[in-house]
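Homework help board

Subject: predicted structure for assignment chain

Our instructor gave us this sequence and asked us to write out the predicted structure in token form, then describe one feature. I got the tokens but I'm not sure how to describe them. Can anyone check?
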Amino acid sequence: MLTGVTRPAQHSTPALRLLLDLLAQGAAAEEFDRPAADARQAGASAAELAEITEAAAVALRIRRTLGQHRVREAQLTALFDTASDLAALRDLDAVLRAIVHRAKLLLGTDVTYLSLNDDAAGDTYMRVTDGSVAEAFQRVRLGMGEGLGGLVAQTARPYATGDYQADTRFHHTTTIDSAVLDEGLRAILGVPLRLGARIIGVLYAADRSPREFTATEVALLSSLADHAAIAIDGARLLEETRAALVDLNAASETIRTHSEAMRRAEEAHDQLTDLVLQGGGADDVAAALADILDGGILIHDADGAELARARAEPLPQPIPAVSASRARGRAVPLDGTWVCAVLAGPELLGSIALTGRAGLADADRLLFERAGVVTALLMLLRRSVAETEDRVRGELLGDLLARTGDPGTLAARARRLGVNLNRRHSVFVAHSEVAPRHRLLAASARSAQALNGLAGLHHDHVVLVAPSDAPGPSAQTLAAELGQAVGFPVTVGAAGPATGPAELPDAHREADRCLSALRALGRTGSGGAVADLGFIGVLLGDQADLGGYVRRTLGPVLDYDSRRGTDLVTTLDAYFAEGASLTRTKTLLHVHVNTVVQRLERIGRLLGPDWNAPARTLEIQLALRLHRLTQGPRP
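My token output:
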């Protein structure tokens, strides 16, 4: 050994110095044979040559040790650089690509790749590759225990093979072997990616030619896998954190939007509630709601009658949508119109329809539904007031028709309800064969209020007393209005006009008889007074207006005779008396037959073309007889 040489020979000292220079220069291994060769040529002794040869061997060992240290230092530096690079990455895909690329550089293999475990599927799947060219290899999945990678994932231990296809230690499958063969891989090293005791995947390094992986390479790839597992977990946690932040932001925005919608709905609810409590009606609620929701509003009652409308065209109540809304307890869309049932508990009070807002956001939908609650409050208040007022009006009407109480007291009670009994009033009795009586009564009450009259039930009939000087035409109008309101034909008998409480009971009895006559005559769904029933009205009337009947039937002929001095009435009377025979009529009148014809043509122009119809001739003949009785015999 060099330490045992105390007095180097003449030729060994320069040789030893040269060996040190070669070490310092990092010369190639073959250069370390040169000092011994130079000493041999210079005539060095055998002892000197042995000493130089031993020193060269020691120098080569030192050189190998230094080389190993440099490689280890480079590997450690690379690992530190890798850890630094991975720590700087935030995207999971970028982290995975960086891991396999750095593994490829450190081990100098043809291909590196990484698979991650799928806990749900119970296998491990290829996630990232570097240097791979086969598409099937990049999509391969390995069951736990299958192939080299599946075994690493299952056992959590590194495995290496110099020639995979020929290695019988692994469970070969057609899918895996085919993918490895497509890629052309021979030597494969796989190490587990660990997070504590949990294996999250496998990191691989592979060559397309056979080779043996050293323990140092296995340790190096394992160290890189440890760093990679931490980086993968960090990137995954970061992604989860980002996703959680996104969800949190979305939740915060949802909460903010919901809070804003609730605030807006509460403000609108308070506004509409105050409107109702301050005495606002359905029209006011519809107008306010139309402004709030920027659309058209229609409010219907439970029977489908329109109560109010704002910024919208008339629209029948959509019964199917109302039923659907009632069942779900939510507003529902129908052909571009939103419909919300107005409920008081299980009871259907009516509905609200919103037009012009086909797409309704959740906030506006909530507001619209809250408007249904306010509308229910309005309808309940209206119903309570209406029921009270109808009861008061009905009681007054009953007292009037039954002659109960002092007329002055009855008139005073009527004035408190806005009804002036000193005006001329007509009495109307309404009946429907199909419509429920409560619906007919409600519709009559609305009509009575509009006319400043009274309505109620009396002797099982709906009776209405309202200002009118023409009971017949008024009855026709009322029959049409009530029929439209209840959706079924309504027949109305009328009488009057009557002035003061004392005359109303008699008018009621006549109107009731008129209703019976209308129904008996098959005039269901129409309205009229006794005067409109011809001679039947004369028979039904308490005080038969014979002169009025004659005037209504023969008025044009009587007026013509009066103006012209003619006697068409006598000709008409003779014509009917002789059984409508022209010959006998001309004989009775002592005129020519053409004269009779001319007179009858004039009568036809005065009374109308149907004057000779059977039904009309009966009316005319009765009027002629009454005229003859009241005027006395004519020559």
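Reply (TA_rk): Your tokens look well-formed. For the description, you could write something like this. The radius of gyration is 57 Å. That's the kind of observation they're looking for.
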